Amino acid sequence: MTAPLRPSRLGTGLPPFYCPLPRDLVHPEAKEVESRAVAWLDAFGLYPDPVERAWGLATHSADFSCRIIPDGDVEAVLLFTQWNYWANAVDDWQDSGSDEVGTAAVVEHGVRLLRTIEDPGASVLPDGPMTRALRDLVDRTHAMLTPYELRRFVEGTRDWLLGAAWRAARAEAGSMPGLNDFVAMGPLANGTRFSLTWSDVARGSRLSADVLSSPALTALTDAAGFVVSADNDLFSYDKDDHLEPREVNLVNVLAHQEGCSPAEAVPLAVALRDRVMFLFTGLRARLEDGSDGGDGQLRSHLAALGHYVAGSIAWQTRAPRYASPRNRYELPVPDARFPVRYAEQPSTTGTGPPDLPALASWWRHLHG
Fold first, then answer.
1. How many other β-carbons are positioned within 10 Å of the β-carbon of residue 22?
2. Going by C-beta distance under 8 Å and a sequence separation of 6 or more, which residues neighbour residue 317?
């Protein structure tokens, strides 16, 4: 007899998602991108056996890439997709719970990865399929991106790796961080700027450094990253709920702070997430209204931020990596998905700045 699946600590279903943004957009060449990306994975032998290959493809990295970049140059979207398959393989190694994957190992690999991106000839990673695939990615990335776009991509990769190292350090210490620390540093592991660089590259967006680094647009980008990170903590919760100590994510941080169960912490996580989503939509609208009517580059970038948030939800809804997690299934279920609902309004009536310094400063940009 097959043992029943372990129930989710979050309850019987995910809460409704407040997302007043265009949804279910996808790049028209998504099938071509997926086919070419999988052929690339197989050519480099990225997965050592059919089981690992099945779980690697279950990330649906092509779907993610084509939903957050629903238009633009196919070659750029393809290269971004291949980066995502490769990065998810690294992410699975980081989240494996193996005794060999401590903070020191995550930091050591991260530094070597960054140096390889910045200087492909540095030869600081051991040979193997992952390194050979990485070198191909890096060579093609250097050929496609301008020097400034490459610098943005490196900084986005650094965010991802620093966030992953911080989470690994907290897990190794066996202690949950406080909520303010988590909301300040935890979302870095999401790699928001890693993804948004490719969105601009694919669409040919060439915003100046001063605009991209302006305080208001920086706050808006960080708010998008927080919402996507919070959503991922909900969708991916079951995938890592076997780990001890418990994974450092928004639900577990709130449960620890409030002395409650993960299921009881979900409404608290959603309320905070919805508050930031409300800020995101308001600030995004202000920046759009205040832009020069001819500033199509800024409008395109602001639209891309919306695609990033909404596309991430649509992708995670359909990804077997989350809907049929490996700690419950021997192989991913191809058609597994979450029955996601959308909410018309935030789950909380409090839409002002929360009592968290790491988030509250974003609200000062709402009114210029």
1. 12
2. 235, 323, 337, 338, 340
> Residue type at 215?
P
d(CA 150, CA 341): 38
Retrieve residue 38's tokens. Answer: 């999988």
> What would you report as the CA-atom Rg of the chain, rounded to the nearest whole angstrom?
20
Strand partners, 343: 18
Angle between the N-to-C axes of helices 30-44 and 50-57, in degrees from 0 to 180, rounded to the nearest 10:
150
Sign of the Cα torsion 136, 75, 33, 36 reads: negative
- Cβ(125)–Cβ(112) under 8 Å? yes
pLDDT score for 98: 62
Structure tokens, 162: 């620093």
Q: Is 241 left (phi over 0), alpha (psi -120 to 50) or beta?
A: alpha
Hey, what's the torsion of the CAs at 339, 340, 343, 347, to 10 degrees? 100
CB-neighbour burial class of residue 39 (10 A; exposed 0-12, middle 13-18, buried 19+): exposed
What does 247-296 look like in DSSP terms, one character per residue?
A: P-SHHHHHHHHHT--HHHHHHHHHHHHHHHHHHHHHHHHHHHHHS-TT-H
Q: How far apart are CA 3 and CA 323, in angstroms?
A: 18
- Choose among 349, 348, 325: nearest CA to 337: 325
pTM of the model: 0.95
Tokens matching residue 330: 């021997």
Regions of the chain short of the pLDDT cut 70: 1-4, 94-99, 101, 291-294
